[in-house]
Structure formats: C-alpha cells, structure tokens
Specification:
The structure is a single chain. About 35% of the residues lie in helices and about 10% in strands. By secondary structure, it is of the alpha/beta class. Strands 2-1-3-4 form a 4-stranded parallel β-sheet, with helices on both faces. The longest helix is centred in the C-terminal third of the chain and has 11 residues. The protein is globular, with a radius of gyration of 14 Å. It comes from Actinoallomurus liliacearum.
C-alpha cells in the first residue's frame, strides 16, 4: 500500500467539499478545523472563525469522550470540516476522525490554497491564531 493508494481509498468514503460548499456548511453550523502548522498560517494567514488544531493533536481535541477535547467536541454528530494547505493530509485526517466515530467528518478539496483562490475570507494578523489546547487533566 502506498500513501497515494491509501489517500485514494479513504477519499472514496468521504463526501469532500469545495471551498464554497465548506463555507456554506460552516454558516449552517459545521465546524471548520484548520490543521496547518504555524509556519504555513504565518506565511499565508488564517481563516476567520476556523478552529486551529494542528494535525498532531487533532484526534485528542475532537474526540468527544477524550480527556483532552476542546469544548466544541460535544458529541459524535458534530460536522467537522478539516482543512490543510492543499487538501491531502486533511483527507487522511478526516478519515481518522471517521474511524473515531465522527461520521460527519470530511475535508476541503484543494485545502487553504483553493479556499483563498475562491476569494473566501483570510486574515493576516501580526501573529497566527494560536492552536486550541485542552486543559491538562493529569493523565
């Protein structure tokens, strides 16, 4: 199995969204989660309203039964839309979330690059938005 084959396989189980579709889903209550690392967000900007959770913390922050979840991770029915830089790692991340039982998880086709190209909002502050962390519970 190669990563390209794995990517193609997991995408058959996702209903991926174009950037405009993702923006509309967010307006309807879905949660957009930006997994890009800080250096990419610093270089290109942030998506206003997106929840920033870097990829290495994603499952721990979004698992509704986990001790390291963020407040928005209320149950398995939350519609999570993952966005990365170009839409590759976000597909693998969405598949991982679905394996945790988050059946509504998906991602954005083309990632942040396509989001920006579609003319959707991007903000550029002096520093990127800080990733969302959960309080440490002693484990």
């Amino acid at each position: 199995m190669s990563v390209d084959r794995l990517l193609a396989e997991v995408r058959t189980r996702l209903v991926r969204l174009k950037p405009l579709e993702a923006a509309e889903a967010v307006r309807e209550g879905a949660r957009l989660v930006d997994t890009r690392p800080e250096y990419q967000r610093r270089a290109d900007g942030d998506i206003p309203g997106a929840i920033v959770v870097e990829r290495n913390h994603l499952e721990w922050r979004l698992d509704p039964h986990g001790g390291f979840r963020i407040p928005e991770a209320t149950d398995h029915h939350v519609r999570w839309i993952v966005i990365c830089d170009e839409g590759y790692s976000s597909s693998l991340a969405a598949a991982s979330l679905r394996a945790l039982g988050l059946a509504n998880a998906t991602d954005v086709i083309g990632g942040f690059q396509e989001w920006r190209a579609a003319g959707l909002p991007v903000s550029r502050g002096t520093a990127p938005v800080r990733p969302r962390l959960a309080p440490y519970d002693g484990r």
